[in-house]
């Protein structure tokens, strides 16, 4: 799926500015950005819930239309199940609505309820489920028609660790089947672990796209040096140390890290000494605060 130069304004407020990215078949793509950056707006445009002012969303070389959009599995941020309808009934209904036969719809519903661990709630009204279980049902709703693309708006928010694992595995499995999967999240450690590629959006523009390793090449590596029993300020006089945050040291480009190691050995017992690439959270901070954009 390709998004090309999508722009969107609400009134005279521009919220997306020529935004573009691509999610290949079988790719798990993490879409991250600060609150209000434009993630939900982008996903709504992909789904056709909102119209872009300009730009295009393509799948298989052609612009998405009514028919191809029906093959997308979507988990909207506002969720949007019918609160008073029973879980099983609702999922069968949604699968039927998107073109599955009654038999297939029932079978897919049973399978997904089982797999997502909510089979015993099949006869309950959605509103009577806990928030996390409603979310599992919401994921089932995005999956029961066997979608060709998955677009999920913050699918992990509010889930307990077990549910996070279940959700993660489902997303991995779907992408392994060849489905392009896009999801937004503020849980960057999770995004870093799970995604093939990540896109960072700021003020409606894509400011960084790539694998975590590619993004890390643009970030600053720091040296982790953990010394036990060392006096405070042991590293203050080491040449080339630009900054220190706990056990993490930023060195000048021409510094020799062996100077720091020698000082550490002289100061106490060195427990750890290694270069550390920036985490996605650190890269994100750099990019959204604009320092390294
Ligand atoms: N219906 C609307 N009318 C006017 N402005 C809107 C509307 N919907 C969203 N916005 C504005 O568009 C911008 C982008 O919002 P959007 O919901 O896409 O961000 P987001 O990245 O999903 O944020 P979050 O992480 O908080 O969910 C925000 O400034 C928001 O206030």
From TrEMBL:
UniProt lineage: Bacteria, Bacillati, Actinomycetota, Actinomycetes, Streptosporangiales
ATP-binding in keyword set: yes
Protein name: ATP-binding cassette domain-containing protein
Gene3D superfamilies xrefs: P-loop containing nucleotide triphosphate hydrolases
Keywords of this entry: ATP-binding, Nucleotide-binding, Transport
Pfam short name (any one): ABC_tran
Family membership: Belongs to the ABC transporter superfamily.
GO molecular function, one term: ATP binding
Occurrences of domain ABC transporter (ranges): 1-228
InterPro entries: AAA+_ATPase, ABC_transporter-like_ATP-bd, ABC_transporter-like_CS, DrrA1/2-like_C, P-loop_NTPase
């Amino acid at each position: 799926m390709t998004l090309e130069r999508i722009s969107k304004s609400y009134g005279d407020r521009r919220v997306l500015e020529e935004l573009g990215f691509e999610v290949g078949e079988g790719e798990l793509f993490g879409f991250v950005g600060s609150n209000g950056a434009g993630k939900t707006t982008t996903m709504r445009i992909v789904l056709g819930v909102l119209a872009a002012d300009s730009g295009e969303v393509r799948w298989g070389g052609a612009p998405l239309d009514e028919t191809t959009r029906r093959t997308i599995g979507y988990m909207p941020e506002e969720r949007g199940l019918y609160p008073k309808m029973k879980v099983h009934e609702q999922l069968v209904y949604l699968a039927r609505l998107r073109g599955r036969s009654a038999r297939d719809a029932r079978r897919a519903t049973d399978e997904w309820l089982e797999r997502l661990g909510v089979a015993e709630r099949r006869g309950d009204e959605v509103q009577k489920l806990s928030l996390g279980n409603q979310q599992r049902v919401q994921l089932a709703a995005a999956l029961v028609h066997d979608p060709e693309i998955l677009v999920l708006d913050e699918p992990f928010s509010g889930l307990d660790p077990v549910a996070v694992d279940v959700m993660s595995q489902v997303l991995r499995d779907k992408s392994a089947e060849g489905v392009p999967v896009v999801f937004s999240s503020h849980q960057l450690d999770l995004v870093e672990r799970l995604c093939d590629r990540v896109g960072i959006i700021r003020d409606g523009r894509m400011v960084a796209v790539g694998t975590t390793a590619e993004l890390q090449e643009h970030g600053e590596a720091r040296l982790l040096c953990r010394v036990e029993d060392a006096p405070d300020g042991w590293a203050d006089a080491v040449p080339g140390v630009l900054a220190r945050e706990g056990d993490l040291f930023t060195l000048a480009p021409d510094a020799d890290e062996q100077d720091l190691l020698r000082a550490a050995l002289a100061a106490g017992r060195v427990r750890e000494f290694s270069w550390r690439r920036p985490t996605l959270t650190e890269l994100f901070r750099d990019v959204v605060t604009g320092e390294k954009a």
